[in-house]
Amino acid sequence: MKKFVKILLTCILTLITVIPSFAAKGAENWPSKPVIITVPWAVGGLADQANRALSQYGKKYLGQPIVPENKIGAGGVVALTEYLRERPNSNKLIYGGEGNFAIGPLFNPVPFKWEQFSPVINIYKSNFVMVANPKTNIKSLNDLKEYGKNNKVIFAVAGLNSSEYLMISALLSEMGLNYEGVSFNGANEAMNATLAGDTVIGITHASLAKEFVKAERLNPVVVFDEKPLKDEVYNLESVGDYGYDTFLVNRCILLMPAGTDPQVIDKMYKAVLQIFEEPGFKETAANLGLTLDPLSPAECDAHIKESTEKAKRFYNMIKK
């Protein structure tokens, strides 16, 4: 009996020693095939363009190419739901953000939870701006308030369960205006509706609207932030300047399945950081107007949880 116990203890100790070495070796060998990164939103948007720029350097830093792909549908719900089939340490990654995990579920039930994903790194953050068709002569929130005294405010948005919709609806509710949102398939289509005069105002990424603002085809009205937006194109007051806090920081987080080896996550995290330092990638990011924002996995987790609490408050405001 004693001999059996001794053999059993020896086997257990051997396993304790060997299993971590296998795990480390597995992480060291990841990825063993091309890394596929899915953008669950429209082709041509900021995330899509950033992903394609990132993919140019996969072989250099991961030993395998990065293959970009798009799977659109329901503002990311379709692709993120399909992604639940992936196992930990998968060679497939996907993007998600506060719109998918903090905001969308407030409007429609979704079959996934934030806890089913492991954040790797945030790629960028983006300021949202309100823009108006120049024919309206709306150039500030005060102008919008005057317009709204006698008119319903029709605005364009990329999805009625998006962060954009929640922010602008919460703001217009606090301003006491009558409004209606019109949903489009992607930020570009939403902005085109405001350009064409089909909607009075729109909310979009500052970088996407920049060229139209420069050409005076759109009037910038306000930035959804706590501080003003001032650069070579914009000189905008923020909603915070008007006493409102109806803003959410828009981030684009790279995700893997929950349970993925922390060493695999760290390997991908460090690879992205190295790609961020590539001159070619920096140039592309600058041309796109991206604010690179490489949050760590823990910081990404904190962002989603903070956004969830804030989104619930905004949602209650617009449902009153």
Range of strand content: 15-25%
Structural class: alpha/beta
User: Unreliable segments (pLDDT under 50, ≥5 consecutive)?
Assistant: 15-24
Please name the CATH topology of the largest domain: D-Maltodextrin-Binding Protein, domain 2
Element order, helices and strands? HEHHEHEHEEHEHEHEHEEEEHHEH
Number of domains: 2
Radius of gyration: 23 Å
Main sheet: strand order: 2-1-3-12-4-13
CATH level-1 class of the largest domain: Alpha Beta
End-to-end separation: 73 Å
Largest sheet: 6 strands, mixed
- The CATH homologous superfamily of the largest domain is named Bordetella uptake gene, domain 1
What is the CATH architecture descriptor of the largest domain?
Answer: 3-Layer(aba) Sandwich
Structure description:
It is a single chain. The chain has twelve helices and 13 strands. It is globular. The chain folds into two domains: 159 residues, Bordetella uptake gene, domain 1 (D-Maltodextrin-Binding Protein, domain 2, 3-Layer(aba) Sandwich); 115 residues, D-Maltodextrin-Binding Protein, domain 2 (3-Layer(aba) Sandwich). It has 320 residues and is of the alpha/beta class. Strands 2-1-3-12-4-13 form a six-stranded mixed β-sheet, sandwiched between helices. It has a five-stranded mixed β-sheet with strand order 7-6-8-5-9. The chain has a two-stranded antiparallel ribbon with strand order 10-11. It starts with a helix and ends with a helix.
